[in-house]
Design goal:
Chain B: Keywords: Repeat, Signal, WD repeat. The complex is a heterodimer. Chain A contains 6 helices and 4 strands. Chain A is mainly α. The N terminus and C terminus of chain A are likely disordered. In chain B, helix 1 runs antiparallel to helix 2. The chains are: A mainly alpha, B mainly beta. Chains A and B meet through helix 1 and helix 2 of A and strand 7, helix 3 and helix 4 of B.
Chain lengths: 322, 484
Amino acid sequence: MLRGRRRMECTLDAQSLISISLRKIHSSRTQRGGIKLHKNLLVSYVLRNARQLYLSERYAELYRRQQHYPDGAALLAGPAACPPPAAAPPELLPLPADAPDREARSCAAARGGAELLEGPVCAAPPELQRAPCRDSSPAFYRGAGPGGGGAAPGLLYAAGCDFAGGGAPHCSSRTTVLDLDTHVVTTVENGYLHQDCCSQCPCCCQPAPAPASPPPAPGAKRKYYPGQEEEEGVEEGEPGGGGVAGGPPFAPCTKRARFEEYSAEHPQDSSNISNLISIFGSGFTGLVSRQQADSEQPLNGQLCSKQALASLGAWTRAIVAF
Amino acid sequence: MQKKWVVFFCVFWWQGSNDSLPSAEAVMFLKFSLRSVFYGAGGGNDIQWCFSQVKGAVDDDVAEADIISTVEFNHSGELLATGDKGGRVVIFQQEQENKTQSHSRGEYNVYSTFQSHEPEFDYLKSLEIEEKINKIRWLPQKNAAQFLLSTNDKTIKLWKISERDKRPEGYNLKEEDGRYRDPTTVTTLRVPVFRPMDLMVEASPRRIFANAHTYHINSISINSDYETYLSADDLRINLWHLEITDRSFNIVDIKPANMEELTEVITAAEFHPNSCNTFVYSSSKGTIRLCDMRASALCDRHSKLFEEPEDPSNRSFFSEIISSISDVKFSHSGRYMMTRDYLSVKIWDLNMENRPVETYQVHEYLRSKLCSLYENDCIFDKFECCWNGSDSIVMTGSYNNFFRMFDRNTKRDITLEASRENNKPRTVLKPRKVCASGKRKKDEISVDSLDFNKKILHTAWHPKENIIAVATTNNLYIFQDKMN
């Protein structure tokens, strides 16, 4: 679809379009007269289009790399080797999303998650390095589903593979997903399933062949409340429509699914990164600092997920609450 | 008329006697003559538009409150109303035609100015409500006073504009300046009489229709029954009675149960000029829905859906934005309706839903500039469009203070500029041309030198005459056709 587009005069790539659009959304919050629903809806369409192009490019690149390394050793989401501590946030690979929502929901439900918010990849904790070097591509493709066209729009999936400190090609790919409906954080490791519980050590791997399919453990769900604070300019007529704890995620203007990813920047796109940082403030900084924490502490899935959660929360709040 | 026939025959004869094929120039001349013969001086681009007046401040520094946000002629064309971002309404009145000045129609002079809306604050949502006048619609005149509806984002007001040119004089108990007289000084009684006074035009708000819209009002439209009107915001359309302010009926509601599923908003709505049960509303997805209020109380299900399939070769990042309809207007006859999206004007026959009957490109050269226009927000500009009195010509605005007219009969179009440089009355406007690419001819303007801050969003055509009102950012231009 976008491949046939005419050449633009100003050569904007998908990433800068995304950052421009996010900036527009952000500035619309402080505009006089309140948020213009129509304009923000149109901006969200541009965001979606740019995201789709970005995703298809990433997907193609990944596929190329996959072809390169058929033993599945390095399914990289980004630059190889350990990301440097102060690096850009880890890459996200949201899937191309063309399917309508209903279809998406049903096919996602089959996988047990209505809308999944992917967390950034964590560096492999030591205890998990024992995992056999496996072709992690199934983990990726499982999420990919039957082709890009059939994928759920709301499904965001990060496949990343960080090399262990040893540098040996090692496929300890891990993904962290947040189910927005049940608010359960799940870490999927090389096709094995962790159920992340607040109280339990995340090392209790219960190998399950299925991908993220979190049956709610009683009392162990970690609740994620989007937008507890009063959001400015929520264009929701009903009183108290914004930010009620435990209430449905409020997204008065557009589909939340569209915003459940952020444009991951290459480390070299520092200008875009700084733009986004300035826009999203602590949320972004938290994300970046999480990388540092990862490399310092022995990671466990819980910490990883929690931090991913916290930083993602800021992202989601910031993006959604316009 | 006879002269033209003579010319026609002369040319034909001359060419015939030279025993050669008619030259290109001769053919053009023939075409011109024929067209003048058959369509008359009023047809299409044979109208020679002349500058008539310009209203507004001269200096380039535009105060934001002075930005014109709506322009509307009343039903007779005698009055012209403008609304601005500062919440004010200015009404101009056309002078009675002067018999001695038969070469031009009456000028428009300020008739009344009043503050229609003030900025408000919604404490519940911590939102400021802008006082900008989004739309003005005139009611047909029923008595000596004039009535109009003006709306900002949230509140619609019915204003009565009345003249006072007499005042009572000769009160027994009051002096002329209003002071009360001491009753003991009254020795005789007299009957007060009306004496003429300087014309005073008063505007008073007669009805205030508030608190019915959660989202921003974008349209109001008065029904042909002259008793009801509709108001439309992004997601809902309400039906009001002009006499009743504390209640309105919701007739369209496209708000999804889950706002995350929102895919389109209402961008404009209008009642049919003749059928009091029919109205249309346009959406941000480029569709128009026609609804019949007799079908059900809530007209969520349309009677007709007008949509043209998208051209896949034109797909871009911004396809959704440029297909969003910014204005919809019925023709005076009620047979057609016109829609304006970012790059084109489309004319739809109400009897054919699958595609428009006519499409006119307003500024196709901007298609390759959409990226920059997105960056500077110009891509979100909402241009309006209008019909002439006989539904033969449509007009809309563009950038660089250009405006465009399309003649539906001759299929010709013209681009004119609203500029203070052509300031002398009865100066014929010179057609302009934008050079899209390649070699720029003399007098053409290249796309890159267009001023995107100078945009004409609002235009209006007199209901009966060839008089147009064109609003630049803060000036109002009035053009007339050259009368012989």
